[in-house]
Amino acid sequence: MNTCANNKCMIKEKNNKHLLLVKSTIVFCFLFFACQSLLLAQREYKKLPDNVSSSSFREYAPTLNAEGNIMVFQANMGEGNRWGIYETTTADNGVTWTDPVPLDSINNYGAPNDLIGGPSISYDGNTLYYFASFKESLGSEDIFYSTRIGDKWSSPKNIGAPINTALYEGFPSVSADGQSMYFICFDTLNTSDTGSSCFSIKVAKKDGKGNWAEPVFLPAPINLGCEKAPRILSDGRSLIFSSIRAGGKGKYDLWMSKLGFNGEWSEPVNLDFVNTKRDDLYASISASGETLYFLNDGEVDPKVLKKYPNMKGQEDIFTAFIPEHFRLYKNVTFQGKVFNIEDNSPVSATISVRDRSTTEKLFDLPVAEDGKYALVLTEGIDYEASVNAEGYSNIIFSEDLTELEEYKQINKDISLFNRTDLELEIYDADLMELINAQIQIKSLTTQEIITDIEIIEKENIKHLLLPIGDKYELTISKNNFQTSVFNFDLSSFVLYQKFQKSIELAPNKVELEFNIADATTHEGLEAMIFLYNTDTDERIAIPAEMGADGKYKVEVRDGANYQVEVRSPRGYSFFSSKLKAGKKKNFDVALTELKPNTKLPLKDILFESNSSEIIESSYKELKRLVKLMKDNPNIVVELAAHTDDVGAENYNQKLSESRAQTVAMYVMQFNIPRARLAPRGYGESQPSTTNDTEENKAKNRRVELMVLSINN
After folding, report:
1. How far is CA 594 from the centre of its chain?
2. What confidence tens digit (pLDDT) does each residue in 440-479 have?
3. Tens of pLDDT along 323-362?
4. How many CB atoms lie within 10 A of CB 520?
5. Is 155 within 8 Å of 105 (Cβ atoms)?
6. How far does CA 314 lie from the centroid of its chain?
7. By CB neighbour count within 10 A (0-12 exposed, 13-18 middle, 19+ buried), where does 81 fall?
8. Where is this region: Disordered (predicted)?
9. What's the confidence (pLDDT) of residue 187?
10. Which of 350, 591, 615, 700 is the most exposed place for a label (fewest CB within 10 A)?
């Protein structure tokens, strides 16, 4: 029994706890909703400052750019309460606004009685759409647009068919990607039970060529018969519009519907946090999705009514904080300037946006003439954006927003260039050394030679500054080299400014034949042949066994200057000379057998003027003399120095003796015994030719070698 009683007590205690929990929950819920109601009741709409939302005028249709620092609206601030469009800006997130500036290029365009209104600024702030009754209209009112030029707006342009018709079109709103336009229209003047004018909402989309396609009516549950003032938000999927329908508070209320990824619009939700029993119209939301700007229709200020007794209502622009569950899809706003990196001038480009996962092209966003842009990308997609402008480079950047957690605003200036730097390194294909060459540039588009391309040369490397937008044919040529031709395509996608290309030019070759023979018997001799290219420092050695019959063939560079040295077998003289390849294809060399009284002229042995000091260029020939003495260790030679007849005979005699001694001293440095050398000076006594010209005098200033004896 006690156990049972205890169980009953336990059950009773549990029931009491459960009842207490239920009561607590009910109280909590009551308090929660009471607090919610209290918060809603305490939330006050905030009217814009009086300099913008004036009690003396009626303000309509506020519209914001993506950054939220520019607002354009309709107001009757003109002379005689004429309607027009005005612009104001903020630098403190909407706390204060500058005094509204009338857009005179629009307001003063038509006749004084023309109606202008329903403005909608593009999210990049560069295009302004509105309706007007200008004479160019196809119907009563048409949709027009103006583009920003610096801090001014262009004259109105009719957006034309198929959007405008012979009927009424007004209150346009263009999506952030510029691909969809929402607007209202009617074919007969319908009214609701409240006496309000009723309209329907249409949407027009751009086709693949960037033209507006035929507009279509939005389906139910958007259009039910009495809609007005659509505003597509920055996410491109959230639509706020005014409507008189069941569930509203009487007159026009603000409603929101979202376009699902299945292409269907959701059931509109009443924005009850802001709607009143009067008309609530013309909403606009910043790209961040936090603040709502809207029109509230209130009672006319008595002072205003005294001045304007016919005024029936007082419309002002208000703001309200948007609860989280009414927020648009989260997005990221890129904004900045597209400019030329060379001179910082603005570039009017196009930003093409794709879905990276599907490669589907989503939209093209035009950049204004002043280079400013605002690109809004909505959550849920991995984006790729490319920036393109005719005659300029391209830039690609990506942004993965598949899991975006919060709104972001990113400042991104984009620099483009209209010339590439093609760095050309031109090499000698044999020596792999940089060489200078001529460059001819031809446009493959016009087939014309281009002569005004800027070419900068740095350290033998050429930098060609080629304009983007063409295909080029470049011809690289140099005398005595084979020409090289290549194409360089800058007509399509260009991501990089600097390019490098190495070109190897192959030198033209000619075959040169050497005939080496005994000077007396004319029989062929084996010899070592050395060729030294004085232009390039190239050296070629031809071994003796290649020409057993005394005939040697070698390919040399056409047009090059060579120093030729032929080293004879033991018992023969050496030979040295100069040649220019191409002019002569056969080179005959007669080698003299070393016998007593054999004379061998030593070429290019030069001295400083009136001096026995040897000029440096003479050492090549002197080294050949040393080689001859070493290859033939059994010969004794005379080193005979001669002069021309300029100066006193006595002086020339002593000068020649001194020069002969200098040559002998040089040779002895290489372990050639003094006994094998007989230096002698002959002055001007043995000229090889007459001293009647400077050329002949130079021939007489010589050093000769004569074999005195051969010791076996």
Report:
1. 74
2. 999 999 999 999 999 999 888 999 999 999 999 999 999 9
3. 887 878 888 999 899 999 999 999 989 999 999 999 999 8
4. 11
5. yes
6. 53
7. middle
8. 678-701
9. 56
10. 615
Q: In what order do the strands lie in the sheet with 280-285?
A: 46-47, 314-321, 291-298, 280-285
**Cα–Cα distance, 236 to 206 (Å, whole number):** 14
pLDDT value, residue 4: 38
User: What is the rounded radius of gyration, in angstroms, for the C-alpha atoms of the chain?
Assistant: 49
Maximum pairwise Cα distance, the chain: 162
**Mean of pLDDT over the chain:** 86
C-alpha 554/C-alpha 546 separation (Å) is: 10
Beta-carbon count within 10 A of 592 CB: 17
- Extract the tokens encoding 288: 């961040």
The CA-based angle 280-286-291, given to 5 degrees, is 60
The Cα–Cα gap between 158 and 145 comes to 7
Cβ-contact 420, 498 below 8 angstroms = yes
Q: What is the distance between the alpha carbons of residues 312 and 240, in angstroms, rounded to a whole number?
A: 26
The rounded distance, in Å, linking the Cα atoms of 350 and 338 is 10
Interstrand relation of 471-477 and 372-378 (parallel, antiparallel or unpaired) = unpaired
Side-chain-side CA neighbours of residue 702 (13 Å): 19
Residue 624: CA atoms inside 13 Å, Cβ hemisphere, count? 26
- Bond from prior residue into 673 cis (ω within 30 degrees of 0): no
Spans of the chain below 50 pLDDT: 1-43, 300-301, 304-305, 307-308, 311
669 Cβ contact partners less than 8 Å away, ≥ 6 residues apart: none
Tell me the three-class secondary structure of 60-109, residue by residue: EEEEECCCCCEEEEEECCCCCCCCEEEEEECCCCCCCCCCCEECHHHHCC
Spatial neighbors of 584 by CB under 8 A, at least 6 apart, are 512
Which residue is it, tokens 């050093």?
703
Could you give the CA distance from residue 174 to residue 236 in angstroms, rounded to a whole number?
9
Q: Is the peptide bond before 221 cis (omega within 30 degrees of 0)?
A: yes
User: Tell me: the pLDDT tens digits for 172-230?
Assistant: 999 988 899 999 997 555 655 555 678 999 999 998 888 999 999 999 999 988 999 99
339-348: Cβ within 8 A, 24+ apart: 339/371, 339/413, 339/414, 339/415, 339/416, 340/392, 340/415, 340/416, 340/417, 340/418, 341/415, 341/416, 341/417, 342/417, 342/418, 342/419, 346/370, 346/371, 346/372, 347/371, 347/389, 347/392, 347/416, 348/389
Give the span between the Cα atoms of 426 and 548, in whole angstroms: 40
One-letter amino acid for residue 629 of the chain: M
Which domains can be identified in the chain, with CATH numbers? Answer: 46-326 (2.120.10.30), 331-416 (2.60.40.1120), 419-505 (2.60.40.1120), 509-591 (2.60.40.10), 598-710 (3.30.1330.60)
User: Nearest Cα to 300, choosing from 55, 53, 76, 61?
Assistant: 55
The DSSP letter of residue 666 is: H
